[in-house]
Every structure is written in C-alpha cells, then in structure tokens.
Amino acid sequence: MHVGEVAARTGVTVRTLHHYDRIGLLSPSARSAAGYRRYSAADLDRLHQVLVYRGLGFGLEEVATLLDDPDADPLEHLRRQHRLLRDRVEADRRLLAAVEREMEARQMGISLTPEERFEVFGRHDPARYEAEVRERWGDTDAYAQSRQRAARYTKDDWLRIRSEGEDLTRRMAEALRGGVEPDSPPAMDLAEEHRQQISRDFYDCSPEMHAGLGRMHVEDERFTATYEAVAPGLAQWVSTAVQANAARQAD
After folding, report:
1. How far is CA 61 from the centre of its chain?
2. How far apart are CA 189 and CA 243, in angstroms?
3. Percent of the chain scored above 70 by pLDDT?
4. Per residue in 139-159, pLDDT tens?
5. For labelling, which of 26, 160, 172, 242 has a CA lying 20 to 30 Å from the CA of 79?
6. Phi and psi at residue 142, in whole multiples of 5°?
7. Start-to-end Cα distance in the chain
8. DSSP H or E run through 235
C-alpha cells in the first residue's frame, strides 16, 4: 500500500508516517519507480506494534529500542503488551470506581473530601451504594430528608455519628453475649435507641420503617455481614429486637 492508503486504513496521518520513516522507526519496505513509499504487510504489523506501545505511553526512542531488540520475538512483544494493557485496564478500573464514588457522594450531599470520607467511613463509604439507594428510595421523603441533612454535616458530625453507632452496636453485642433475649424490654430499648439515632441524624424513622430495616438485617447479606463481623448471631438478634420494638410502639 502507498502512504495514503496506510493513513486511511490506520488513522495515522501521512505526516506522522513520514516522520516515522525519517527517524527510522517505520521505514517502508519498498519504493515505487517514482520513489513513492510502499508498505508491506510486515510494515503494517510493525506499525501496529508502534501504535500499541505509543498508546501505553512509551516514547518513540523506547519503542524503537523494543522493536529492534534482536533477542525479542513477536510473541514476546504481544505478551508484554498484553501484560501492560491488563495493568492499564486495572488502573483505569480503579480510577473509574473512584470517580463514580465521588459522583455518588456529591449526589448524596456529602461535602467531605475523598480523604475525609476515607477517614470517616473507611472501606464502607456509603457512596458505593448510592445508585442502589437512589433507585430503591429516591422518590421518598426519607431520602430527600437524609440528603438535606447530610449536606450540612462536617467531618466532626460524621465522626460523631459513627462513634454513636459503633457504641450502640457494641452494647447490642454485649447484650447478645450476656443472654439478653432479643424480644425483651432491654433489647427493645436498644432497638428504640437505634431508631432514634436514625431519626435524629438522617430521617424521621417511624416504627414501621424501622421494622423494615430490621428485616433487611437478615435479608440483605451486606447488613448481615456487618453485624456478624461484630458478633455471631448479632444480625438476627438486632432484627428481632427491632421488629419487637416496632410492635411495642404500635401497641
């Protein structure tokens, strides 16, 4: 193929192809009688290798060194490029996830920096689940109320909320280990404290809504795993206590 055909087929400009020829990175295998460049299949294969390495961020001199290595074979080039591309894809995946979490956090109204969110939430950043939360409850008053409150909270507010939640979970685990029945008044009092925390910090949580959350503790494996990591059996204990307290509030 002549240079114009190569440019049309590969998207590389004629000017770039001329430059590659001048620096010896990609010289055509033949010339026409009139002196025009003629590229062979092998030349196009080398151009493909050049473009892949360039896409991976290699400089022209580095690309030339790699391709002109007498000890390297084409399969080795492919293996190297495959490895580098997989690394690039993984890095892009992590970057995409970080950007998505930042978008979700802003949609939630959380005004913390990524570093502050990590300090407050660790690997349990609520922004990871915002899309699911918005899909399930985005049209509810509770969701709107929670977003409004979250938008006002500072890092210290979030640290307080986390500390209070951890303290309550610890006391629930102690009650479980101490043999307190989950439908007994002490357990229901702890469940009521949990409902009040939600109402104070996020949205007005009615006993009926709280009972629904209680069922999620055993129906959603993510809730279950969080409580089971504190104490085996705690998810079921909290679920039962919450629903018993909801029934008590309804009486």
Report:
1. 36
2. 12
3. 81
4. 788 878 888 887 788 888 888
5. 26
6. -60, -40
7. 86
8. helix 234-250
What own/partner pairs with CB < 8 Å and gap ≥ 24 does 177-185 have? 177/231, 182/236, 182/237, 182/238, 182/239, 182/240, 182/241, 182/244, 183/240, 183/241, 183/244
| Cβ-based neighbours of 199, under 8 Å, separated by 6 or more | 205
- The model's pLDDT over 31-46, given as tens digits with 9 standing for 90+, comes to 988 889 999 999 998 9
Higher per-residue pLDDT: 223 or 15: 15
- Compute the average pLDDT of residues 9-13: 91
How far is it, in rounded angstroms, from Cα 102 to Cα 90?
18
DSSP SS3 for 2? strand
Q: Bigger pLDDT: 194 or 129?
A: 194
Distances (CA, A) of 20 to 12, 29, 30, 85, 152: 11, 13, 15, 23, 57
**CA atoms 13, 17, 20, 26: torsion sign:** positive
Distance CA 201, CA 150 (A): 8
Tokens representing 60?
């022209």
Predicted local distance difference test score (pLDDT) of residue 134:
64
Q: How far apart (Å, rounded) are the C-alpha atoms in residues 8 and 120?
A: 54
DSSP alpha helix (H) spans, 56-183: 60-67, 74-108, 114-121, 130-137, 141-152, 155-177
Question: Residue 121 above 80 pLDDT?
Answer: no
